[in-house]
Amino acid sequence: MYPAPSVIYFTTLTGLGFGLLAWLGFGYPDVIGKTAFFLYLLGYGFAVGGLFASTYHLANPKNARKAFSQWRTSWLSREAVLSVAALVIVAPHAFAQVFLGGSVPALGWLGAVACIGAVFTTSMIYAQLKTVPSWATPATPLLFLGYAAAGGALFSGQVVMAAILLVFVGIAQLGSWQLGGELFAEAGASLETATGLQGLGSVRQLEPPHSGTNYLLKEMVFQVGRKHAEKLRWIGGGLAFILPVVLLLLLPPHFLTLAIAAGSHVAGVLAIRWLFFAEAKHVVSLYYGK
Amino acid sequence: MTALPKTCQKKLGLVIDLDTCVGCHACVVNCKEWNTSNYGAPLSDTDAYGANPVGTFLNRVHSYEVTPAEGPAQTVHFPKSCLHCEDAPCVSVCPTGASYKRSEDGIVLVNEDDCMGCGLCAWACPYGARELDALAGVMKKCTLCVDRIYNENIPEEDRVPACVRTCPAGARHFGDLGDPESDVSKLVAARGGVDLMPEMETRPVNKYLPPRKKDELTKGEALAPKSTEPKGFLAWLDKALEAL
């Protein structure tokens, strides 16, 4: 799949933003005043920035408001509804913490659940697609939620929780990389089943349907990423998990330590999310002999 | 809107005969011609006369080579367009309600006034049947020529999809696949029509007829050569060249 920057920023930033807002909604850490202002600014900044980035993926954004209408059937629509709901529900709790020195725990909790829902529905946009077997697995929502929880803990300054979650999510990501490669074959699609010619013999492409490129090839038969996948996994994993965990465990919990760990984590997650798209193989590529 | 209908009164679709298709691409051209000038936004081309032309098409013809375990390989031309699936994943993923499947005839359509061009329906389709138009920014797909098949302003013989009307080999058939007594249903039954990628669980309405088994020469069937020695002019040429 083509790793469009808009969807990479969308999934990465909304994950971090809603992860952070969920922790704050649950009261971890229970902050007021300037600290609360700074943390909510980050949370809202990431979440809104990510949602804004997603609109760059639309070829006809003037109809974007209609995406709130099909929540009964569409995961993308559910994501839109829950994202906005989460931002609205957390707001009074945030306002009370920042400006009034109190809190609205009921709305905080409800908002936090909506934040988790927003991350889950985001993951289901990808996990629902049978056509991309490496996404159509429970690992996709689990990892998206894991990244949001770990990133949120890191940005909210919960050193121990962040370190534990980073280790768990790092191991889960490693496991997903190990097993993910076989999902395409397990889905059972081949050029033979794609053409219905399995009864006749083995099939190969003789001539493509068009000499130039097209939307399908550009969007769904992207193959550049596979060449450097191994190296990028090391870079992504090193920046997202290893370096932050080492920094959190070895250095004193200073603001600067946290800032470097968080920055490294974000850079690593962006690289891993790039791979999530670039490595994913869509079954339509079979028709093009790829 | 993006909920799939529980049942469709008709299941209009295509039956494509892979035995007969000669790979001439006439269906591709006529599809483009009809659909760029009728229903919805035109099918745009970019750099049409330049070095890297790219365009939107609703129907494309692939060519494959099938090699059996024994015997010679065979070329199969393979036209591919929307299969108007009964469990169309492109419809239920649509967030705006632009994608829908009609309960009266099962045709899958896009309401371009609602489409935001997110491309998720194209990702959900296993067959590459949907292409986002680069200029209009909306998703384009086969309409089964919905503006021809019910159109009383055109002669009756033209009230079939443009690809079917134009096919010079008679490799494309149009009809109601929900009616077991229809010509297309009988054809599918007689020829063992198949679904593409059944493992994707889309239940396509369109069916493909696999190529018929070809005649094979059995041993001893061929006549033995009647003559080994050249005669007449060739015999003279043979001798003359020999003498040189």
Descriptors:
heterodimer, A: 290 residues, mainly alpha, Formate dehydrogenase/DMSO reductase fold, 11 helices, 67% helix, globular, B: 244 residues, alpha+beta, Alpha-Beta Plaits, two-stranded antiparallel sheet, 7 helices, 18% strand, dimethyl sulfoxide reductase activity (chain A), transmembrane helix (chain A), DMSO reductase anchor subunit (chain A), membrane (chain A), DmsC (chain A)
Strand content of chain A: under 5%
Low-confidence stretches of chain A: none
Question: Which CATH C-level class of chain B is it?
Answer: Alpha Beta
Number of helices of chain A: 11
Rg of chain A computed from alpha carbons, rounded to a whole number of angstroms: 21 Å
Whole-number tally of structural domains of chain A: 1
- Using CB atoms under 8 Å apart, which protein chain pair has the greatest interface? A-B, 58 and 68 residues
Beta content of chain B comes to 15-25%
Average of pLDDT of chain A = 94
Largest sheet, spatial ordering of strands of chain B: 10-1-11
Distance between the termini of chain B: 87 Å
The ordered H/E elements of chain B are EHEEEEHEEHEEHHEHEH
Which CATH class of chain A applies here? Mainly Alpha
Largest sheet of chain A: none
Cα distance spanning the termini of chain A = 13 Å
* Mean pLDDT over the residues of chain B: 93
Keywords (chain B): 4Fe-4S, Iron, Iron-sulfur, Metal-binding
Protein name (chain B): Fe-S-cluster-containing dehydrogenase component
Domain 4Fe-4S ferredoxin-type (chain B): 12-42, 72-104, 106-135
Region (Disordered) (chain B): 205-225
